[in-house]
Amino acid sequence: MAIREILTVPDPRLKEVSKPVEGGVTDELRALMDDMLETMYDAPGIGLAAIQIGVPKRVIVMDLAGPEEEPQPRYFVNPEILPLTEDLAPYEEGCLSVPDVFDEVERPTQCRVRYLDYNGKEVDEIAEGMFAVCIQHEMDHLEGTLFIDHLSRLKRQRAVDKVKKAKRLEAKSAKSRSAA
Ligand code: K2U
Ligand code: ZN
Fold this sequence. Notes:
single chain; about 180 residues; Peptide Deformylase; five-stranded antiparallel beta sheet; binds zinc ion
């Protein structure tokens, strides 16, 4: 297993539409999902889409267990979601690809999720609560959409400018540390 680099805005790869996994859930795909999960735990986060580590495949990992609970890793290969209600609820979202930016996004409170699990078994279940928020956030990633794309143009630009400035400052301090 390996911790991979997480892409951040304005990396254009984050806007790619990810492609379906072909040939089923192989050992190679499981190794990718193991890396994704290790990268997510290290970030730390509760969800991660493969495109966020630069792999344009329709694969998501997630772990919604609380800090006091045993880890509950979840793997979604070629996931499909169908909204089950017109009821929307706001949630203060963040994103590992848009670090230190948080804002409210409204999403359907329930959705149906169909996917292949870590062993290639077909699963069909109802998502609600945090599971519904997270799976819809991750499904957006597979379509090249970030949570800031649901915000106003001004808020979106401010978010990207904030991340770009933080990366410039980090690069500058890394350079001065290496020069010391
Ligand atoms: O896609 C990602 O960057 C992973 C997100 C998943 C997420 C975003 C919004 C709402 C729920 C899940 C990261 O885990 S962002 C960090 C985080 C952690 C706990 C709760 C919300 C966000
Ligand atoms: Zn995200």
